[in-house]
Amino acid sequence: MEATDETELCFPTLPNSSCRRTVNPHSVSMTAYVTLSCISLLTVALNLLVIISISHFKKLHTPTNILLLSLAVSDFLVGFIMLFQILGINGCWYLGDLTCVIYLYFDYIVTSASVGTMVLISVDRYIAVCDPLHYSSKVTENRVKLIVLQCWLGSALCHTLLLKENLKHPGSFKSCAGECVLGMTPVAGIMNLILTFIGPVAVIILLYMRVFVVAVSQARAMRSHVAVVTLQSSGTVLVKKSELKAARSLGVVVLVFLLCLCPFYCVTISGQDTAYNLSSIAFVLNLLYFNSCLNPLIYAFFYPWFRRCVKLIVTLQILRPRSGEANVMEWD
To answer: What residues does 177 pair with on adjacent strands?
Structure first.
């Protein structure tokens, strides 16, 4: 009986302080390991294709694609973060308190940067659809690069302040040996919830509701064969069909992101404390991570330029001189 009890401990040599590990049938454990490993590798590979495509081909250096590049970078990093999630799949953490804190701190930053990028994508589509005349002057490539950089730095600074006690004293919030957990004060937990979930989600929904209303009115105007540049009744400039198409495609990206993000925060809100535990919210956490694998698949479905870029990358044609100047947008 004692041997059985020991096998259920993360650290059998510390029977009084060790956490109990999750004991699953071997087939279940292997299925989970293989599935998560495949998703992790697929996430890294697909987002690397997005990063190479937008970085290499000059025709793709547009403000909107810079935002997609930022999202792809965060999704690419999520693929590596998933590897640590796999290591703790049985509820035990063997890499030490410092590694745990660094891993979860990095996870918070990447997730927050993803949410911030989604807000920026919504703002970009809002300006493109609702204020098309001033889009080119308001949304420039250099300005978007600066804002994206601020988004990442802001995310890092915000969570450095919110998690400072964890960074100063790694492992101070764990209840037993083998647990990987971060803790926040009630005030820090509320601030994190507002800054990384409630506030951004509210902004995204409001902006896309406005984009949807304008897009519907523009679509009706186009179907009625309005041949003038402006709608004389309202003075509103007709939005380019390509901008409406981009709004629809990016709307799918945003919608899928929200569907994967909301369950995680709903579970967090329903918890008794603000502790972030690897084993207690494994499903919703993996759902959030899985979103990073879905985004490139959405691009492949909606964007012909991405499919063309993948073909050029896989066949190594990007190694040819001046390949970066290829017009990969010609099929759009």
So the answer is: 18
